[in-house]
Specification:
The protein is α/β, with parallel strands linked by helices and 596 residues long. It has helices at 2-10, 13-27, 29-64, 70-120, 131-173, 178-221, 223-232, 235-287, 293-334, 391-398, 421-425, 442-447, 457-467, 495-508, 525-538, 551-554, 574-580, 583-595; strands at residues 351-358, 368-375, 380-385, 406-411, 414-415, 428-431, 513-517, 543-547, 559-564, 567-572. The strands form two sheets. It has a six-stranded mixed sheet, with helices on both faces. A four-stranded antiparallel sheet has the order 2-1-4-5, covered by helices on one side. Helix 15 links the parallel strand 7 (513-517) and strand 8. It binds adenosine-5'-triphosphate (ATP) and magnesium ion.
């Protein structure tokens, strides 16, 4: 909380503007200029209407005085009516343009800056538990930024021009009338600011009670709580809590509302003083014969709109102060360090790890501890070891998603810390332990690994066959078009069926290197063994890394690497490791009965 406040101070109004304005302006310069001009036209229009009114009142006064005929009033009347219609039409069009055309499309563009940024930052940031908050705050910051710009543009291009044009017009009637703007501006501005403050105080005071009431209400009414509260008979407990808090809420709210209303009333009194000043100036000039009745009436009736404009400036500027913090969340997010690097092309499928150590952010223990491993191009290596040994972490480093804290990882001759992630992964495919279950049709669920939604059906069906996805069976009623999500009128797959889809997705991607991090846990052992045998056949000439707990499957590898506590403790072919009678042999014995 404290940190947040400091932030707000440091990142003031101008800092935010300087950072946000260019982004939005560049997104659509023509639209921005149209919008700004529209505001200025609308501000001038208001003064034109005032002038037309003045003319009309003067004509009416002459008519009443018997100095003019009705025919002379009619054009003035038509001018006022016509002017108002034109201005209203213009403003309607203007707001449609701003709301729909301008701000909505900017919101989309700004949010996509977040998506793009996320594609460039270092994925290790996701391991920081606060990072998701950061992203969410940046997302909210987008809306705050748009509101911010909305406020600034309406102040700069509407309110200020309006007051300037109005001042000039008043000046032309009688120079001293310029003072009127000050007479309205100062009290109105001060009063509005104090009202905003009291309002914010009211929200702060009652919000905790409202939140508590909402929570108790949820517990009493929402399905996710309902069963337990019913079984425990906790209904009365929460109803009592609800009623108690409600009583406090009403009492507090009443006190605050009284204060708010009184502030409003005192504010009204102060602005009334400004009104009296204006009226005095007007009456004095009218009686002295310096202004016409029309000018008197026109100025008098425009006080309200000047007052409204001033309040708007106060409103919008308080919004600016309030939103600065949120907007800065977005700006700071865009400034997060990115994973860069040189562009290169991998020479072959060799993967070399030299004295690699790695710890997850915020954790002391090393997930990988001084580990060295060389996987030759075209070799199939199985990685085995107990839960938490570091197998998945090893795969994450070999694929260049995470970078080592010490030591180096090279893929096809490219150091993962020096080359761009896309250079490293250009010819690499992987299926992770926690793979995605996309709510998309089967075809896209597979084709997505090539970065395109449009796939090559021939290759997709081949990948399905290799991974054991029975796309033509009754499991997939619409074949490749079957939607894999119940809520979109599709089907629900079992865990094992999903794993096959994920494997097909991994196989579909063009690759020289492929890593499978245990995507087969939900597939029965015998079937996994069969799958891997087929896989060995498919992957001839390609570098393959398989992580598995089932040693029967590991046998198909050219080499088996045994991990323990972030280190490699054994390495060799199945036969060599059995002969060595070490950790592998022991594990294999205990699993052998599965395959007997
Ligand atoms: N995202 C993470 N944040 C913090 N620590 C992690 C994270 N992922 C793994 N670890 C830790 O790193 C160590 C290695 O985990 P890893 O997931 O690499 O093991 P594994 O061999 O793949 O295990 P399993 O067989 O259960 O998949 C463990 O101590 C684990 O607690
Ligand atoms: Mg794992």
């Amino acid at each position: 909380m404290k940190k947040n406040k400091e932030n707000k101070k440091k990142l003031g109004l101008f800092y935010v503007l300087k950072n946000i304005f260019p982004t939005i302006f560049k997104a659509n310069p023509a639209a921005f200029i149209v919008m700004a001009l529209g505001f200025v036209v609308s501000a001038s229009g208001a003064t034109v209407i005032m002038h037309l009114n003045r003319n009309l009142y003067d004509k009416v006064a002459s008519l009443i005085g018997g100095n003019a005929a009705f025919a002379a009033v009619l054009p003035a009347l038509l001018a006022v009516v016509g002017g108002k219609i034109v201005l209203d039409l213009f403003r309607t069009g203007q707001f449609m343009f701003i709301d729909l055309g301008y701000f909505e499309s900017n919101a989309v563009k700004l949010r996509s800056t977040i998506h793009k940024k996320l594609g460039r930052i270092d994925p290790i940031l996701y391991e920081d538990k606060d990072f998701n908050d950061t992203v969410e705050k940046a997302d909210q910051g987008v809306y705050a930024a748009l509101g911010y710009l909305n406020s600034v543009t309406s102040i700069v291009f509407y309110c200020i021009p309006y007051l300037l044009i109005m001042s000039w017009y008043l000046f032309t009637i009688k120079p001293i009338f310029v003072v009127m703007i000050v007479l309205i501006f100062v009290p109105a501005f001060l009063v509005k600011l104090s009202q905003i403050k009291v309002h914010a105080h009211m929200e702060d005071t009652v919000a905790p009670y409202r939140r508590a009431m909402n929570y108790y209400e949820d517990v009493l009414t929402k399905p996710k709580h309902f069963k337990e509260t019913r079984i425990l008979g906790a209904g009365l407990f929460f109803r009592t809590l609800y009623e108690t808090v409600q009583a406090i809420f009403i009492k507090t709210e009443w006190k605050v509302i009284r204060k708010v209303k009184l502030t409003f009333f005192y504010g009204r009194l102060v602005t009334l003083l400004g009104y009296v000043g204006v009226l005095w100036l007007l009456v004095d000039s009218l009686l002295a014969g310096e202004i016409s009745v029309g000018a008197f009436a026109a100025v008098f009736t425009s006080i309200e709109s000047v007052f409204w404009t001033v309040s708007q400036i106060a409103d919008e500027s308080s919004g600016l102060v309030e939103n600065a913090g949120r907007v800065s969340n977005y700006i700071e997010f865009l400034k997060l360090e990115e994973r860069g690097g040189e562009v290169g092309e991998i020479a072959d499928g060799e993967i070399v790890l030299q004295n690699v150590s790695f710890s997850y952010p915020g954790r002391e223990e090393k997930a990988l501890d001084n580990l060295s491993l060389r996987i030759k191009s075209g070799e199939t290596v199985a990685i085995v070891g107990a839960n938490g040994a570091g197998k998945s972490t090893l795969v994450r480093l070999m694929s260049g998603i995470y970078l080592p804290n010490e030591g180096s990882v090279t893929v096809g001759g490219l150091d993962t810390a020096k080359y761009t992630p896309s250079s490293i992964r250009e010819r690499m495919s992987a299926v992770f332990q926690k793979f995605n279950r996309y709510k998309l049709p089967l075809r896209e669920n597979i084709a997505i690994s090539q970065g395109k939604l449009q796939g090559d059906d021939g290759r997709i069906t081949a990948a399905c066959a290799d991974a054991g996805v029975e796309y033509s069976s009754e499991v997939y009623p619409k074949g490749l078009d079957t939607m894999l999500a119940k809520e979109y009128d599709g089907i629900e797959l079992s865990g094992g069926q999903w794993q096959r889809v994920a494997i097909a997705r991994g196989l579909y991607r063009n690759h020289d290197i492929i890593m499978l991090d245990e995507p087969t846990a939900a597939i029965d052992p015998l079937e996994e063994s069969r799958l891997y045998s087929g896989f060995a056949e498919l992957s001839k000439g390609k570098t393959s890394v398989l992580v598995t707990h089932r040693l029967g499957s590991a046998r198909i590898a050219d080499r088996i690497v045994v991990m323990e506590k972030g280190r490699i403790v054994e390495s060799g072919t199945h036969d060599e490791l059995i002969k060595a009678k070490g950790a592998y042999a022991e594990m294999f014995d205990s699993q052998a009965k599965w395959y007997a």
